[in-house]
Fold this protein.
Amino acid sequence: MLPVRAAAKNTGVKPRDMKGILPLMIIMVIIFLLLLLWENEVNEEIMQVSSLEHLHVDYPQSDIPVRYCNYMIIEKVIREPDYTCKKKHVFIHERPRKINSICTSPKKAPCQNHSTTFCFQSETKFQMTVCQLIEGTRYPACRYHISLIEGFVLVTCDDLRPVNFQGYVE
């Protein structure tokens, strides 16, 4: 058996042991970076869920015979950021391709809410469902009145695709 002093000298980390740790550390850094990139992709997917198409397009129109607005508002998680009920929401019943073409429309004017931003107006009228809040304040306990309308859609565009629904003109 070795004396205690001799055993203590042999327990230190030797330079040749570091060679085995270096590849392990590199692999750990690569895994960390991959996890960061994957997290960013998940965040991008969440951002896409809040797109105009997800929030405002229902084509073909869902076959919900009763309480269409109440169902769709919960199904698409439409609410204010502070979890209160949205006062009014519009669903457009048209092909996404046709809605995307609004951004090439010659009908362009300053948006009502943002005087420096331009809105594009559809050249044809679209079928829409307007959901008007009639009861409730906290999501999801919201009840809506349904109105079927036909009107011109107003959107803001970015790179020739609609970004935000700004309203409609009957």
Remarks:
- Residues 41-49 have pLDDT under 50 and may be disordered.
- The helical segments are 4-9, 15-49, 52-56, 68-75, 96-100.
- The CA atoms of residues 85 and 141 lie 8 Å apart.
- The first helix runs from residue 4 to 9.
